[in-house]
């Protein structure tokens, strides 16, 4: 997770407003409490919060082009960044810099414009610049948040609503599979295929689809397991988390499984049954109704929604 606050200044902003912009960015510091990178060169101002670095103090998920005229920053992960580096960067450049990150995606943008995003596999939102515009984008699913607002002085993008509220402008979400830019360009780069009409299902087709779904879920889990990272599993006792934990246990030798629940809940019962079956390290955190009520304001503040189902699953 990372925190993005980016501004394209249509005209010079008064110095007295600089503190306000810093305050805006500080509201999403929790998305990357360990490191903060600031870039300011008219007409751009970017504050990027991240939890970890690459080698040589290079910010993870933030990269400049070869001539430093363009940059990209993302919240999330792009699983095929090495493939993009190999495809869009020449071998001499790759040999010279061994801690490449998003440079391949940025080089692809220079060639293909926003169509390069169709070649990025992962869960992400982010910003990218060219010489004259700031662009915000989301992956086709839209799992990572990104919002924008604008005035006659600026165009702003941020990872959370709360970072834009002090600017006192109408705030809108960036639509999944879409880009929006400081020059007013709104363009969908990804289009879902139309559903097949009058679809005829057969037993063999069901089995084929089940195998394909099994493969895709397994690939999604494995893609999120990176070498050197300490990865744990949150097991609710339900079907979704059980499937993910079942796959992950074969790829993580020291997998620890955690379950949170109230006393005598069915969640705890099924979670215990699952970990016993596969002999997994299991830790249980029991909470009370009082605990959940006390944390509600913080959960609502973090989620920026009053959606009951989402709040319930997050508590």
Could you name the key traits of this structure?
6-stranded antiparallel sheet; 31% helix; 25% strand; Rossmann fold; alpha+beta; 2 domains; 9 helices; Glutamine Phosphoribosylpyrophosphate, subunit 1, domain 1; 315 residues
Question: Can you characterise this structure?
Answer:
The protein is α+β, with helices and mostly antiparallel strands. The protein has 2 domains: 2-188, 4-Layer Sandwich (Glutamine Phosphoribosylpyrophosphate, subunit 1, domain 1); 203-314, 3-Layer(aba) Sandwich (Rossmann fold), CATH 3.40.50.620. The chain has 9 helices and 15 strands. It has helices at 18-26, 81-88, 91-96, 103-112, 203-223, 239-248, 266-278, 289-303, 308-314, and strands at residues 2-9, 35-41, 44-50, 62-64, 71-78, 122-129, 134-138, 147-150, 154-158, 172-173, 178-181, 186-188, 232-234, 256-261, 281-286. The chain has a 6-stranded antiparallel sheet, with helices on one face. Strands 4-5-6-7-11-12 form a 6-stranded antiparallel sheet, with no helix packed on it. Helix 2 (81-88) packs across helix 4 (103-112). The radius of gyration is 22 Å and the shape is globular.
């Amino acid at each position: 997770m990372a925190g993005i606050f980016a501004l394209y200044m249509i005209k010079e902003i008064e110095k007295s407003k600089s503190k306000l912009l810093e305050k805006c960015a500080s509201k999403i510091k929790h998305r990357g409490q360990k490191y903060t990178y600031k870039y300011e060169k008219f007409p751009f101002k970017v504050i990027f919060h991240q939890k970890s670095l690459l080698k040589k103090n290079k910010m993870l998920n933030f990269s400049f082009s070869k001539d430093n005229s363009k940059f990209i920053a993302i919240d999330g992960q792009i699983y095929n960044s090495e493939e993009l580096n190999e495809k869009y960067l020449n071998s001499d450049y790759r040999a010279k810099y061994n801690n490449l990150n998003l440079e391949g995606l940025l080089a692809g943008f220079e060639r293909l414009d926003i169509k390069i995003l169709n070649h990025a596999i992962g869960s992400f939102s982010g910003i990218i610049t060219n010489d004259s515009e700031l662009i915000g984008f989301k992956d086709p699913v839209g799992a990572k948040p990104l919002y924008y607002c604008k005035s006659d002085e600026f165009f702003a993008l941020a990872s959370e609503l709360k970072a834009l509220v002090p600017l006192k402008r109408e705030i809108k979400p960036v639509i999944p599979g879409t880009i929006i830019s400081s020059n007013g360009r709104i363009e969908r780069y990804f289009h879902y295929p139309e559903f097949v009409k009058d679809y005829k299902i057969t037993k063999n087709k069901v089995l084929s689809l089940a195998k394909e779904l099994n493969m895709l879920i397994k690939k999604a889990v494995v893609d999120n397991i990176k070498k050197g990272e300490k990865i744990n599993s949150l097991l609710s006792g339900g079907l979704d988390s059980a499937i993910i934990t079942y796959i992950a246990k074969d790829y993580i030798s020291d997998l620890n499984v955690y379950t949170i629940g109230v006393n005598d809940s069915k969640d705890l019962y099924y979670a215990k049954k699952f970990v016993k079956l596969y002999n997994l390290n299991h830790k249980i955190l029991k909470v009370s109704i009082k605990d959940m009520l006390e944390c509600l304001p913080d959960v609502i503040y973090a989620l920026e929604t009053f959606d009951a189902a989402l709040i319930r699953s997050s508590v």
